């Protein structure tokens, strides 16, 4: 029920030493995706570790930025995600899936904001600052989600959040993960 958000900042390359699950609108998490060791001291039933990876390259001519490319992905980290089998159920799994969906929503918002950037001499700093801003907004949204749903215990608020995130993902569908 409590989630863990990894806010990863990867410039030019992404570490590949830990298996990840990239967000995909046709794949839904299952309990078998949660491979971490449960925290026996936590009151949480499950923890989802997800985050946004980000890389970019800037093409320069005569010392001036002329173009840039970015790579933004929403990932789930199986080895850092866990659950307590004796207390877990489909309702809790749906709550954890929505944490991952929220990560994808912010990856889309990040891509959208990147699409609005105008090339300038401060491009690198602008991209880095935007990444920090998105990660702060993502963390705030994840906390708000857990607070308002009481970590999935409020069926009413859980349902409201599911509807809200579904609409937001649709609104930013042009910027979805491939």
List keywords for this structure.
178 residues, alpha+beta, four-stranded mixed β-sheet, two-stranded antiparallel sheet, 3 helices, 39% helix, disordered N terminus
Hey, roughly how much beta strand do the residues contain? 15-25%
Oligomer: single chain
The average pLDDT score comes to 91
**Total strand count, please?**
6
Bulk shape: elongated
Biggest sheet strand line-up:
1-4-5-2
Radius of gyration, taken over Cα atoms and rounded to an integer in Å: 17 Å
Element order: H for helix, E for strand? EEEEEEHHH
Kindly state the percentage of residues in helix. Answer: 25-40%
Secondary-structure content class = alpha+beta
Largest sheet: 4 strands, mixed
The low-confidence parts are 1-14
Question: Secondary structure elements and their pairing?
Answer:
Layout: E1 4-5, E2 21-22, E3 46-47, E4 49-61, E5 64-76, E6 82-83, H1 90-115, H2 123-149, H3 155-171
Parallel strand pairs: 1-4
Antiparallel strand pairs: 2-5, 3-6, 4-5
Helix pairs in contact: 1-2, 1-3
